[in-house]
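step=encode ok
step=design start
structure_in=
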């Protein structure tokens, strides 16, 4: 666990970037720091690996004050990923990834680097290219692979996916979450994008101007119970709709499949989208709202239609759950 206790950072010019910050980042989970520009997110992140030193309070990893550890040794246990990946332009992809393990010792590094590139979704064929020969999304992947190379228990990520277009960002986020499900690192991510925070965070810390914490909670808590007007505004007006992502579709009463054409296996034909029993109400509402008939078809694991719901049914279910 990473702990901030009464942490303050005042820069020599008098700017107080972080003030009296108390925060816990649970082991093996993703904590997202989110908030408007200039509210102290990056400063807080950099105090974890001693790129910046607090002017008050304590940052500790597993109970050990980071200031009691030599910065170079400390950083070997902490991967660091930044926006635009920050790759060495004159080194190949492979050499970029190898930078870190070379610090910790030799061995089967090349093999491991190639394996890591594959795990972040980069074909080995790209290993000998230079960063300028890659797309923005590919560069970010190399950045993540490099941060993972020394297998650090902690990862710090500063706007890791914000330099790429929304479609690529969505893919990178999804792949990153799949990787984290296997690796279980303790991760802090800085973003100014609340949607990214909701997708990635197990916990979200909302910062406000002046380096104060406005709220800490799960994405669901933030969307359904914002602590005050600042968080409510920051989370956005469509938080009700987005909150449906956290509501399961169980309990929906299925209607008969009237008017739905089925193939020989019982799979719906000519239907744009379907949902499964475990999907969220957001998926179901979205399907019903985009279908010309206002309905969505539920299917089983084999894709066979099991029933139909109308958007009224979703509203009725929400009413019942109140
Ligand atoms: N070296 C410095 N000297 C003086 N002030 C600084 C320094 N570095 C950052 N600041 C100020 O500290 C405050 C917090 O900056 P920080 O970069 O942590 O914010 P942030 O929330 O990460 O913002 P952004 O989302 O724009 O990156 C800002 O007012 C910034 O101008």
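sequence_out=
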């Amino acid at each position: 666990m990473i702990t901030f206790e009464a942490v303050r950072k005042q820069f020599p010019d008098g700017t107080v970037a972080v003030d009296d910050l108390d925060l816990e980042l649970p082991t093996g989970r993703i904590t997202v720091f989110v908030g408007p520009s200039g509210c102290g997110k990056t400063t807080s992140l950099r105090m974890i690996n001693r790129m910046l030193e607090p002017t008050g309070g304590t940052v500790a990893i597993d109970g050990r004050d980071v200031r009691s550890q030599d910065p170079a040794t400390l950083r070997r246990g902490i991967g660091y990923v930044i926006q635009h990946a920050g790759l060495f332009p004159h080194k190949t992809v492979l050499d970029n990834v190898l930078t870190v393990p070379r610090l910790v010792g030799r061995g089967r590094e090349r093999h491991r680097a190639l394996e890591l590139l594959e795990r972040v979704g980069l074909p080995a064929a790209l290993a000998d290219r230079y960063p300028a020969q890659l797309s923005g999304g590919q560069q970010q992947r190399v950045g993540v692979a490099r941060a993972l190379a020394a297998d650090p228990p902690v990862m710090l990520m500063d706007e890791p996916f914000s330099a790429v277009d929304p479609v690529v960002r969505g893919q990178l986020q999804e792949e990153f979450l799949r990787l984290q499900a296997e690796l279980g690192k303790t991760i802090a991510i800085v973003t100014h994008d609340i949607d990214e925070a909701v997708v990635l965070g197990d916990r979200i810390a909302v910062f406000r101007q002046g380096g104060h914490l406005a709220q800490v909670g799960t994405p669901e808590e933030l969307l359904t119970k914002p602590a005050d007007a600042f968080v409510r505004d920051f989370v956005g007006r469509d938080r009700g709709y987005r909150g449906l992502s956290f509501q399961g579709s169980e309990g929906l009463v299925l209607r008969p499949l009237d008017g739905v054409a089925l193939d020989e296996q019982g799979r719906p034909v000519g239907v744009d989208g379907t949902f499964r029993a475990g999907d969220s109400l957001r998926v179901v509402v979205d399907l019903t709202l985009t279908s010309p008939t206002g309905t969505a078809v539920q299917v089983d694991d084999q894709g066979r239609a099991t029933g139909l719901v109308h958007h009224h049914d979703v509203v009725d279910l929400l009413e019942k759950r109140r």
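step=design ok
step=annotate ok -> The mean pLDDT is 88.
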